[in-house]
Task: structure prediction
Amino acid sequence: MTTTRTGAVAALLLTAVLSGCDSTSDDAAATSSAVQAPSVSASAAPSTEVDATMQIACSVTGGEPTSSCTARVTRNWGEDGTTLVEVSKPDGYTRALFFRGTTPYGADSAESDGSAGFDFTVTRDGDASAIEFGPERYIVPDAFVLGN
Result:
């Protein structure tokens, strides 16, 4: 499956990258307490602190992700080095997305909101992951996940 990004989505992604992930920008210090991925040792405890926040392209009703959602990343969140990206959706709910390196491998789900039956698919779109989880769409830049 190929994902084609519209001009509006590309503009949202570019704005997000420039405002939160570029370690050379003036805004990086304000939105990120760590711009480098932490080194992980066998005895390292999982992190619970948010490493960075930015706006990502999203949609919760299907179609192209032309809205903007606030996302927070916690690197080394799991004992295995998993990265957690929590997305605040326009409907007021939060979706957790799980990454190993730059590869998304799952999302939280619940029977109560119907998401337990959602399919989770990922395509690469340049230096970002285009995630489809049921009707939800998220574009997550690698630089946000990795911190570089």
